[in-house]
Amino acid sequence: METLKKLVPSDLNASKWVRMILGILVLALLVWRLVDVILIQRLYGPDTWARFAITGLIIGGMYALIAIGYTLVYGILLMINFAHGEVMMLGSFAGYFVFELLAFIPSPGPENPEQVLLNAFPVLSILVAFLVGMLVSALAGYFLEKIAYRPLRKAPRLVPLISAIGASIFLQNAAMLLFGPQRRTYLNPTLLDRGLGLEIPIAGNNVLVPYTGIFSFVLSILLMLGLYLLVQKTKLGRSMRAVAEDKGAAALMGINVDAVISRTFIISGILAGAAGVMWGVHNGLLNHYVGYIPGMKAFTAAVMGGIGNIPGAMLGGMTLGILESLGPAMLGIDFQLKDVIAFTILILVLIFRPSGLLGERLSEEKV
């Protein structure tokens, strides 16, 4: 009987074998499609692949900023803030209205009486738009935690999740009623004109790297680096890590747990607001629904990197942006299916690597 038990695999081992066989089949299919598209059909040249990769890095930086908001909140409260995409949307609208206001106010001085503040002081205009966008999103995150999540902190984990979905729907509809359902076009300063950029010769063709993309990518890296230093090197960062590890022990050590949680939502809102303004500056279009899909993809990126893991969220966002941009071309499918690729990645990660690329950072008590 003991010999028979050893020969028959347990349910866990059987599940592992099923996942392994499924993984081999998926990998074989991907390899076959890549060989067919890249080596046999050769549908795209090196310059086109470079354009796809550049687009992926730019969008990936924005996904990473939003994903960090998900992973910060999950690391402390063990909940997914599904209204985070709408926090980004509010920041994007705030930046839009700042640019519109600066484009309406004429510039002082007799040199060019027709010039407006937006183009007379482009660096200052961009700085003000980002500061206002981040402030609005920070306030949205703060009040979201105060109103929708704090009263439910001791409730079963499903309850705040439902509250987050309700908050997402509420913010979408509130934005539609306040700003209208129509799409709006971001009015950038001439310094960040969406038609301008650096031209890099690749395989005999010029590849345009837009200034908006360079600006967004560099700012994303700087913000992620600043957040990592804040979490690792500052008193607030140590308090955040302590609260994430054990709220009761942190409170006994004199840490104000409620204040740390509020500041975590403020920080996640600041990053989402910056990503929202970048999204508008780079892509040029926004409406009340603009934060939903990027928010869901950023959640995918957070899961891919390891929910609760800040470097994992950064890596997951960059990886998802590149895969989403290169995926349709590499698989030879319609580019409108890029959203399908992103959510297929989420399913595959949950099946084969639920802890994410860098692992889920949770204490034993949370597990």
Give me a quick take on this structure.
The chain has helices spanning 2-7, 11-41, 46-77, 84-104, 117-120, 122-149, 158-179, 211-233, 235-245, 247-252, 257-283, 292-305, 310-331, 338-352, and strands spanning 184-185, 197-202, 205-210, 285-286. With 367 residues, it is mostly helical. A two-stranded antiparallel ribbon has the order 1-4. A two-stranded antiparallel sheet has the order 2-3.
Count of DSSP-assigned helices: 14
- Distance from N terminus to C terminus (CA atoms, Å) equals 35 Å
Overall CATH class: Mainly Alpha
- Give start-end ranges of low-pLDDT stretches: 1-8, 362-367
H-E order: HHHHHHHEEEHHHHEHHH
Based on helices, strands and strand pairing, what is the structural class? mainly alpha
Mean pLDDT, rounded to whole units?
84
Shape: globular
- Order of strands side by side in the largest beta sheet? 1-4
CATH architecture descriptor name: Orthogonal Bundle
How many structural units, i.e. domains? 1
| Main beta-sheet strand count, sense and barrel state | 2 strands, antiparallel
| Strand coverage percent | under 5%
How much helicity do the residues have?
over 70%
Task: Please provide the count of β strands.
Answer: 4
